[in-house]
Amino acid sequence: MHADSGVADPSIHPFASLGLTAALVRAVASEGYERPTPIQEQAIPHLLRGRDLLGCAQTGTGKTAAFVLPTLQRLSRTPRTGRIRALVVAPTRELAAQIHERAVAYGRHLALRHAVVYGGVGQRNQEQALARKPDLLVATPGRLLDLMSQGLIRLDAVEVLVLDEADRMLDMGFIYDVKRIVAAVPRVRQTLLFSATIPSEIASLVASVLNLPVKVSVAPEVTTAETVEQTVYFVTRFEKRALLERLLKEQGATRALVFTRTKHGANRLAEQLSRSGIDATAIHGNKSQGARERALEGFRRGTTPVLVATDVAARGIDVDGVSHVFNYDMPNVAEAYVHRIGRTGRAGARGSAISFCDIDERPLLRDVERLVKQRIPVAGGEDAPATPVRAPNTPPVMPGDSTRRRQRRYRGARL
Fold first, then answer.
1. Residue 294: what pLDDT?
2. Does residue 138 surpass a pLDDT of 50?
């Protein structure tokens, strides 16, 4: 739908029933949103009334619109002051950029200005954006504090503070930075905190920054799409790379996302794949912003068909047309499996999710199967349970293997 032709009367659009103005409803409609998600239905009316909010929700639930839309509406109802009146703090550059892009899209019919600041790039362009006196600023903690220390950002006029993915900021070591930022904004404000989980440190932060908050919880969707074919291979860790190379070629993967557990593992695997003639690049938190953006652009355009990523780096990345997801390493947290494989099989297209599981990862596979309430089929039709069925020093069964071939391959892997 488009703003000018798709919604003749914004007042009858489902988003209007939440209390949003016609300008915002037109923008939402032009983005193709036909009805609110559960978190949007639950959160937006409370936020429009100025309540603080604790949102327990993960990426993919529509939480960005849930806080951006009411924040834009609040800002639009008073004249611009030339000062930052709303601040959104996010853990990663990708997420900050995505939130900013959504703010621009939703606010297209409003006379408001927006800016985004994050580390890993030069700050000249960000200084120029700040000089245009944004009403709403999206920022990562480190760059925000850096610009504050230079006197380029003041937060003494902030009316709305949003802390997005607070648990991720805790995991990344930003919790003390967040507390410094909170101390720099006015005590009288509207505060929104979103977190997929509420560990003790986040619970303490909630108690200190929120005032009688409304609590909104959206349970993560743990079912996996029917359009995604799931398979698991039982292999040793020495065999994973050769198997990945073989499957990438045999299955004609046009755009494959490969998940590893560590940044070092992502770098090493991408380099090994490239040396074997498979165009691959890695994306993780230690990459410069320019390198991350180039990697993503190449993946989106299809010039780099294989992107090797960690869970942290992949969070917030939304790329259509992913044909395959490979769990090169099983995730430590079962919910991550659902988010990983949900990146393929979208919009009715077929997708393939292939997991490599060594003997030490069997408990992780068992956790995944409990979460999704189904047994993941074993490659080759072997009806193997997700528990160790062989001693660590015996080779696994792979489709088409003979006993002699397995023994020869395993001996070579151990050399």
1. 85
2. yes
